[in-house]
Amino acid sequence: MKNVTTLLCALPLCLLVGCSNMTTGEQSALSGGALGAIGGAAIGALTGHAGEGALIGAGVGAVSGAVIDEDRQRGEEKRRYEQRRNKNHRHEVHHYYDAQGNEVVEEEYYDE
User: Fold this and answer.
1) What's the confidence (pLDDT) of residue 64?
2) Could you tell me if residue 59 is inside a domain?
3) Residue range 22-44: average pLDDT?
4) Is residue 81 in a domain?
5) In principle, which of 27, 29, 36, 44 could form an S-S bond with 50, CB 3.0–4.6 Å?
6) CB–CB of 98/104 below 8 Å?
7) What is the total count of domains within the chain?
8) Does residue 50 lie within any of the structural domains?
């Protein structure tokens, strides 16, 4: 029993240390695969095929994790690009009013 407890305590530590040199895409694929394997094993156990369910779930989870991370990275790149692009361009709006305070002209200037 002591060996089992030691193994259960050491396993999460090994997983954490093992992920320290991985890219975010690799970490996402690994965690997706682990979650998929757990879910697949649970669903497969209901039909009597836990091993096959775990394998299928691991594959689907790994691919899903990698795709989700790729999409997240593209979104970040697009956001950074938009920030750089908007930082270099100035947009000014000038309002002109008549004597009664009514707006008569609105001009927009774009510095490109």
Assistant:
1) 92
2) yes
3) 88
4) yes
5) 44
6) yes
7) 1
8) yes
pTM of the model: 0.56
Q: Give me the residue label for tokens 């970490």.
A: 27
DSSP β-ladder status, 90-97 and 103-111: antiparallel
Instruction: Read off the tokens for 68.
Output: 């989700």
User: CA 46 from chain center: how many Å?
Assistant: 31
Give the integer Cα–Cα distance in Å for 27 and 72: 13
> Tokens in use for 54?
């775990």
Instruction: Please name the residue that has the structure tokens 């690799």.
Output: 26
Q: What angle is formed at CA 110 by the lines to CA 109 and CA 112, rounded to 5 degrees?
A: 150
pLDDT value at residue 19? 65
pLDDT tens-digit map of 70-101: 998 898 888 888 777 776 666 677 778 888 88
Strand partners, 110: 91
